[in-house]
Amino acid sequence: xxxxxxxxxxxxxxxxxxxxxxxxxxxxxxxxxxxxxxxxxxxxxxxxxxxxxxxxxxxxxxxxxxxxxxxxxxxxxxxxxxxxxxxxxxxxxxxxxxxxxxxxxxxxxxxxxxxxxxxxxxxxxxxxxxxxxxxxxxxxxxxxxxxxxxxxxxxxxxxxxxxxxxxxxxxxxxxxxxxxxxxxxxxxxxxxxxxxxxxxxxxxxxxxxxxxxxxxxxxxxxxxxxxxxxxxxxxxxxxxxxxxxxxxxxxxxxxxxxxxxxxxxxxxxxxxxxxxxxxxxxxxxxxxxxxxxxxxxxxxxxxxxxxxxxxxxxxxxxxxxxxxxxxxxxxxxxxxxxxxxxxxxxxxxxxxxxxxxxxxxxxxxxxxxxxxxxxxxxxxxxxxxxxxxxxxxxxxxxxxxxxxxxxxxxxxx
Length: 413
Description:
By secondary structure, this protein is an all-alpha fold. The chain has helices at 2-34, 40-55, 75-88, 94-97, 100-118, 123-135, 137-146, 150-165, 170-183, 191-200, 203-227, 229-237, 248-255, 260-267, 271-288, 293-307, 317-326, 328-347, 356-381, 403-412. The protein is globular.
């Protein structure tokens, strides 16, 4: 009994340390948000919010928006913008408010990554990873300065995997999965993997996960699908990203001088091939290692960024928290290198016009991401195929004890 109580106290201390770091990270992000105008996206979101207030979060897809780009955000983002616009009527600054959802998502992700990692490694490693998310330069820059909803979608996707694999709460996991693609459509690549992991858990798990997913999807997406289906499909489901050539495959293709039709195909219809590759990889990993769903979601989102044919500093968020799920070295390396890309990019003339040094750093970040995905996935595959996540008593162990020792401690009780 003494071993269990000591271990439980240690877990709470570790969790408190991550909570303090996450709180400090949230405060830092909001200070940046309150004292900086942000990139053009802040003003664009303000325009979207005003339009949504006029047309509604459903009809917005069917209306032209002069002076604004295509409104390509899923329905839940529209309701969020509507709420933020109402808050500006109470005297709050929209430029500050629009950065809060992403900053709050980083706060949640720091705690979430800690909970995920502590089930699979030592508590010291889990604390390092949780604090790493809270202090990640790329997340501080993108959430505190840029905003957008990428970090929110990633947080919901990781939460879905955690609830499914670690908490054994498939209904809640399905709800979280549906919310992830309702804020930003990017996590759609992990949905098949989550369904495969639920299937591997047995029919009751699959049914509950599907029920949660279908229920929220119908509630959030249903009105727009019934009212403006073609506009929603064109604006959101078929959106391929911008035409900039700043990152990854299209950047390398441009540097190597590939023909323009090839690059245009990569950024056009061809990008769906890369998306399908990510979906297939995630589903295969989920079939082989369903208990490692959080790591699989992290790897799939990282692979999507690696193969992305769109460029945007906020897209670097897709892999930031997940790399810490794959490993502390992977997470720290990615956050430092790509964080420098984000900081310098936002400090430049424009977030979509990278200087030559930032382009080189971006290329280095791409290779760091590739290496991290390789080592992280190899580590996932090295786990036993049928290893279930530990039960709650097995998680209460000394700070330096590995997972195998966790189980021996629980057997004492």
